[in-house]
Batch of 2 targets.
Target 1
Amino acid sequence: MSLIGLAVGPASATSSHHPSGHQSHQQPSHHHPEPKTVPVRLLSINDFHGNLEAPTGSSGRITDETGTQVDAGGAAYLATHLKQMRNKNSVVVAAGDLIGASPLISAAYHDEPTVALLDKLGLATSAVGNHEFDEGIDELNRIMKGGCHPVDGCSPAGTWKGSSFDYLAANVLKEKNDDYALAPYYVKKINGVKVGFIGLVTQTTPTIVTAAGIKGLKFTEEVAAANKVSRLLARQGVKAQVVLMHEGDQVAPNQSPDACPNTPGAGTRIAQGLDAQVDLVISGHSHQAYICKTKDPAGRDRYFTQGSSFGRVITQIDFQVDKKTDDIVRSSVVADNHVVTRTVTPDPEITAFVQTWKDRVSVVANKPIGSITADIGRGSTNGGESALGDLIADAQLEATKEGGNAEIALMNPGGVRADLTFAQSGSEGNGVVTYGEAFTVQPFNNLMQAVTLTGAQLDALLEQQWTAAATRVLQPSATLTYTADLTQAFGSRVSGIKVNGVPVTDTQQIRVAANNFLVGGGDGFSVFTQGTDLWSGPLDIDALVTYMGAHSPIAPPVTNRLTVIQ
Ligand SMILES: [Zn+2]
């Protein structure tokens, strides 16, 4: 019997509340009564996105419980904090997007370094995230089961051994036979009690992952899918149930990581809809930190949490499992978001591990690819148009002219992931742009494609930039100009479309370049899927690298392609 169990088990408190009901369960024991409950501690992360090195800029800061902005994140710090928080009752879990959209140090090796790290941190299981599908289900299976990459071969670390944890999804099915594409649940025995983990990923995954990544898969409604598995687990006697879901809500900027107030969205909908048998909902995807309580369908409080992103927060959840009912004592659940500060000593083993990969990737990362004359930012300066977005669109057009016959290019703003900064901290000198920096801007390894749209379709596509749900202004190449009147109703805002200065007619055929995410209808740009004569070209990162090599030094493009009336 564990001393910890005796120390923190609320056996006496419970029996004092229900003196008669619970006394009878008490075993007449030799020295002391068996505790009726056993403690369990969950330590959870989400949306790590391969951040082996401490993330920089706003990605590496977070508001702590006192309202102060502090530096946070980085694998070696995460390891130290986890070590301090771990006990013999603990299990490390995650809520998806651990890999994908990663920095070069991880992405250059298909995220094997990150998965190796997560194994070192003792991750037991994780919900699958949308980004785990970035390279398709076959690649995800390789990541779990091992083997070298079919195209790029083995990493410098040798043959990939696979992960010791499995990704879970109760709502991802194979299209051909409705079988689960991944394990729907995982049961872990902790301290003699069984805790079941059910995985979920946002059902919107097909609209936010490239079409090739989710080929052959079906993403079903989350609540129904999880409840089906919950009932199955209950029948098997697994009553302590935790849902790990890669879906979440938004909170106000700079609120405490332990606060709740959120904008109820898909996360709250699922958190409230899950069967009452589910005791906890650990979420992800929106990169927010919150500790919320919602009601389950039986009217009991149920925690709904998320731990920011990039390893900046660990969510610690402590609870008791009743040994008689095998269920979580709901009133015993305590959840806390713990900021992964950098004021602790970084874990030496993980520091060395990260340094090894840093050295391996440095040859690639530090290679200069061009130069800039000033900062080129992704911040919108003209109704949604940004200098860096313009530059990327120009690079994409140049990469798709030959072969793809592209006349214009359009880039989704969400795919421009960082600024290019003039001042350098490294040795390469001011204005120099390295491959590593360019990769940070374009980390998705999307393919450039081109399709034919009519003038009318291009108009309809541009109208899709403004909807009641969102504004997403596509970054245009210099060859496309138009006027957007934001005072007009959705669907009638775009006019004066010109390609190379010539007004576009409705029936004119235009070759439009974009990455495969957009061409597949991503971000709600469904008109792209009406395109014909699909052509596929180079990777988006290669388009940017080639363009910078050919045109440096590059001045920030003037953001005047879009004329905005507001
Ligand atoms: Zn996500």
Target 2
Amino acid sequence: MNDEQLLRYSRHILLEELGVDGQQRLLESHALVVGAGGLGCPAALYLASAGVGTITIADHDVVDLTNLQRQIAHDITTLGLPKVRSAARRMLALNPDIHVVELPEKLSGTRLLDAIAVADVVLDCSDRFAARHEINRACVQLGKPLVSGAAIRFDGQVSVFDTRQRQAPCYACLYPQGDEFEEERCATMGVFAPLVGIVGTMQAAEAIKLLAGLGEPLTGRLLTIDAFGMNLMSLGIKRQAMCAVCSTRGH
Ligand SMILES: [Zn+2]
């Protein structure tokens, strides 16, 4: 690290659990953020400010006025731009020290696998069950830790699915595929603006912990946030022996 980096990251380096070594690991890390909406914006901004060296951000959408109530990387000057362009602009303004890869597309199939293969951690900031399941399958297949977040109305959830650990569950252990319940989306259900900030920021925290190798991640636990009554609960999640996705994994 050069002098400017030592200054920029000094408040991280002061944390004895993180220190110079942890910060160096962050600088050498690559995070993939799928979705540049309510969760992806705060997650990507904190990964950028914290100095995660390479951040790939994927989203096929463009910024519109209904996004600005909660998607804090975008603003009125980026209306109509691809969300990844808008987010990357803000991330680099915050920290020109990092490298941002923009993928203005709905990541799927081999494109998704390729993007996950080069990442050290994946943040699922998408808002559809089909995407969540596909990202989970790819992370299990490639042995990459997945930080999952969701928010609708006043209810949020965060968890870490790290199937590099033998006993750790995957997303499908918690929500089996085919068990599809009604998809609830912000467009029809509404979402409390700061809630996506809380959940997205927690995702960034878990990703940074995984990358720097510190703390206890939410692996095997589901954190639920009820922003209406402001109650947080942590529930244990068990690996399902018959899970269609992770029961056949080789590790
Ligand atoms: Zn599973």
